[in-house]
């Protein structure tokens, strides 16, 4: 197995509360993998451990066989481990053009200068490429807080993509998006390049089953089961704790 991201016996305690309990997980290179579980299962804690927002109480995180357990979040981003957030983290008073320029400029070595005099053309080409891919070309000059919420979620994915991820963690990318705008989110996720390994954390089973090639189920901070969508849908343990007796369909 060619592994892009791995955890080994990863654990996190908050006092007497065990939020993540000995999770050993592998994300294959190029994977389309979903992580699901009921509310309180520990999904957000697990993602925060992967990205360095939280330090583990036990275990290790490896990115392409390199131990990154002690690295800061921004260092992990530079190494190619990038995430989106369940709650909008965008700068409301910036335009998508400025936001994407910040992300692309930082990756290309221009720091916080959103439009560097040197390298401006390189940044501009990057913005055009990313904006076109995610259907943002017609809203680049509008304030972010004036955009439809679906466009804001697309912008978040576009910003993550502008960081050139090798592993992309999508934390409920369709959360709060109106039904009429959800297809754009699904299409954008489906069109991500094959060489980007994707872990989707999601409650929406329609999105999970349409996207994922493999699914892991987290319950009480521990992995309950992993398998193909068909295997997960048919597993009586999953039906009991998450999907319900009626299953997906």
Any chance you could write out the topology, listing elements then pairs?
Blueprint: E1 3-14, E2 17-28, E3 32-36, H1 43-51, E4 58-63, E5 66-67, H2 73-79, E6 81-83, H3 96-107, H4 120-133, H5 149-162, E7 167-171, H6 179-190, E8 197-201, H7 205-211, E9 214-219, E10 222-227, H8 229-234, H9 236-243
Helix pairs in contact: 3-4, 3-5, 4-5, 5-6
What does this structure look like?
The protein has 9 helices and 10 strands. The protein is an alpha/beta fold and 249 residues long. Helix 3 crosses helix 4, helix 3 (96-107) runs parallel beside helix 5 and helix 4 packs across helix 5. The chain starts with a strand and ends in a 6-residue tail after the last helix. 40% of the residues are buried. It has a 6-stranded mixed beta sheet, with helices on both faces. It has a domain at 3-87 and 164-243: 3-Layer(aba) Sandwich (Rossmann fold), CATH 3.40.50. The chain has helices at residues 43-51, 73-79, 96-107, 120-133, 149-162, 179-190, 205-211, 229-234, 236-243, and strands at residues 3-14, 17-28, 32-36, 58-63, 66-67, 81-83, 167-171, 197-201, 214-219, 222-227.
CATH architectural label of the domain at 3-87 and 164-243: 3-Layer(aba) Sandwich
CATH topology of the domain at 3-87 and 164-243, which one?
A: Rossmann fold
Shape: globular
Strands of the largest sheet, in order across it? 6-7-8-3-9-10
The proportion of residues in beta strands is 15-25%
Spans of at least 5 consecutive residues with low confidence:
245-249
Q: In percent, how helical is the residue content? A: 25-40%
Report the strand count.
10
Distance between the termini: 31 Å
CATH class of the domain at 3-87 and 164-243: Alpha Beta
Number of helices: 9
Roughly how many Å is the radius of gyration? 18 Å
Largest sheet: 6 strands, mixed
Average pLDDT number: 89
Q: Give, in order, the helices and strands.
A: EEEHEEHEHHHEHEHEEHH
Find the CATH superfamily of the domain at 3-87 and 164-243: P-loop containing nucleotide triphosphate hydrolases
Structural class: alpha/beta
């Amino acid at each position: 197995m060619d592994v892009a991201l791995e955890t080994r016996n990863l654990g996190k305690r908050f006092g007497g509360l065990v939020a993540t309990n000995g999770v050993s997980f592998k994300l294959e290179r190029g994977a389309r993998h979903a992580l699901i579980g009921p509310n309180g299962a520990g999904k957000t804690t697990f993602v925060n451990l992967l990205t360095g927002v939280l330090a583990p109480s036990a275990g290790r995180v490896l990115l392409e066989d390199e131990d990154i357990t002690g690295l800061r979040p921004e260092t992990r981003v530079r190494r190619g481990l990038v995430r989106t957030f369940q709650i909008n983290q965008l700068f409301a008073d910036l335009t998508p053009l400025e936001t994407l320029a910040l992300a692309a400029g930082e990756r290309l070595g221009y720091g916080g200068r959103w439009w560097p005099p040197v390298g401006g053309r390189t940044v501009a080409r990057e913005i055009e490429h990313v904006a076109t891919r995610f259907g943002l070309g017609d809203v680049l000059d509008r304030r972010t807080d004036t955009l439809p919420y679906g466009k804001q979620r697309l912008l978040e994915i576009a910003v993550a993509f502008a960081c050139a991820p090798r592993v992309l963690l999508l934390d409920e990318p369709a959360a709060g998006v109106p039904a009429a705008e959800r297809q754009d989110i699904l299409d954008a996720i489906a069109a991500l390049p094959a060489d980007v390994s994707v872990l989707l954390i999601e409650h929406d089973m329609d999105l999970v089953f349409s996207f994922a090639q493999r699914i892991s189920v987290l319950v009480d901070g521990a992995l309950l089961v992993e398998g193909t969508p068909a295997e997960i849908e048919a597993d009586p343990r999953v039906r009991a704790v998450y999907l319900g007796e009626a299953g997906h369909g």
